[in-house]
Protein: Precorrin-6A synthase (Deacetylating)
Amino acid sequence: MPSGATAVTLRVIGIGPGGPRQITLEAIDAIVDTDVFFLLDKGSRVGQLTQARQAFIDRYAREGHRVVTVDDPPRDRDPDDYEAEVRRWHLARVDALEAAIGAALPGGGSGAFLVWGDPALYDSTLRLTDQLAERAGLNLAVEVIPGVTSPSALTAAHGIVAHDVGEPVLITTGRRLAETPAGADANQIVMLDSHLSFTETAAPDDEIYWGANLGTPEQLVISGRVGDVADEIVRARSDLRARTGWVMDVYLLRKR
Structure:
């Protein structure tokens, strides 16, 4: 930490997969104790997600808090070099957030990011705060508050265990699903899969437990043999996006 800069406590608060009752008491306490909330504005396409974060703040934040909206830098969703594009995007985000934190908390205090699910699982906020903590103009103490994960919300919604007795579970992304080696594919929890890659990789007899917008009034869950329910899931996901403007889905793929 730079010795000349005023200290700022920066909290990364997991708020669960979207359900307002799935936030933890620890997360509520952290929200109550925060001065400034930083929201990355990703545009009207996911405006409902911003509104959901704002609802948490309106419900739990103390009087006198502030909300600072930061325009999220554009990102190429289909780049030739995925990892290089993500690094470029993260750097642009760090630049924007450094400026926002410095302007909002010049005399110190506390700021927070509200993170869907848990900050440790397929979320980039902690990578951003690591980079922010290295910036010369900031003196940050980062606190992390865990949240309910979408995989745990998924298994709860279906009332299942993620694995048979003693079996391992692989957590992966849609982009990586086709790379799962034989022997590691008994139970796969798949996140960030807007293309529903299981429709190309799974066998018809494999089992799938799919859920979208878990914990919200729009929650959808479908389960069964891939060969029986794949088309239903594709239609349901498309209809949900058209109706609500956003989809956050996750599924368990079980080899049979």
Observations:
- Residues 150-254 form a domain with the Methyltransferase, Cobalt-precorrin-4 Transmethylase; Domain 2 fold (CATH 3.30.950.10).
- The mean pLDDT is 91.
